[in-house]
Amino acid sequence: MLLGKYQTSGRTFHVKADDSYAYIADGYAGGFIILDISNPANPEFVSELDFNGTAKEVDVRDDHAFLIVGNMIYMIDISNPEEPELAASYDTPGYPNALVVDGNYIYVADYRSMLVLYYDPTTGVIDELTELPEQISLASNYPNPFNNSTVISYELPRAGIVTLDIYDILGRKITSLENSYKQAGQHSVLWQADGLSSGVYLYRLETESGVENNRMMLLK
Question: Do the strands 173-182 and 185-192 form a parallel or antiparallel pair, or are they unpaired?
Answer without folding.
Answer: unpaired
